[in-house]
Amino acid sequence: MRYQDLRIEDQIDIDRRQALTRFKTIPVTLTDAQTSWKKFSFSGNFIYLIDSSDAGVTIDLKFAEGEDSGNFDYATLKQGLGFISPFEHFWLRWSAQAAKTATFLIGTEAPGALDIIDNRSAIVTTEILTDILDAEIGATSPIQWDNDTVGTTAAELAAEQTERRSLQIQADADNTNNIYVGFDNSVDSTQYGVKLAAGQSYSFEKYQGAVWIYADAAAQAYSVIEL
User: Fold this and answer.
1) How many angstroms separate the CA atoms of 165 and 55, rounded?
2) Do 149 and 47 fall into the same domain?
3) Which of 45, 101, 109, 201 could make a disulfide contact with 86, Cβ separation 3.0–4.6 Å?
4) Whether pTM exceeds 0.90
5) Model confidence pLDDT, tens digit, residues 11-60
């Protein structure tokens, strides 16, 4: 049945129930600082910071006018925090938070009629557990596996790699000089983390930064496996 065909009492009942659950969402971009209080002309009786680009986002909120006068209280909100309180306006301020955003949910009538179902913590937990499981299971394909040579100029063996689980380097058994392993281009025979004689190998896990190598002489061969 169409709305216009309903009895007037039923139309009023529908309008009343719709009003009870009316709300707005307000996105805020935080890249540039808002050091003075910014007024938002929205009325309602609850406000909730429902989403943000990351958990570190913070925004100051108050419901009364006055700027840093000490006569009015304010609260610092993070994702998941809100207030149930009637207001005609509200004010926000924030520090510069590069590439970060926040979204407020504002109820205009009867917050008791709107139940916010928030499963974000369960989703985040699932994502974390998936990452842990993936790390424990191990890689299904290598990032690199190669044979090459290095000489008296430092060379990058592996760039920074956030997907790395482990890396192993082995000096060729026929090498006549040592290979040195370090973590930037300053690695040489006097500054290094590991020294590999012919046939020796070194491996590590958990480190995801850059790895550099150097040799005492030209054309010292090695093999590398990065997973």
Assistant:
1) 26
2) no
3) 45
4) no
5) 555 555 555 556 788 999 999 999 999 999 888 888 889 889 888 899 99
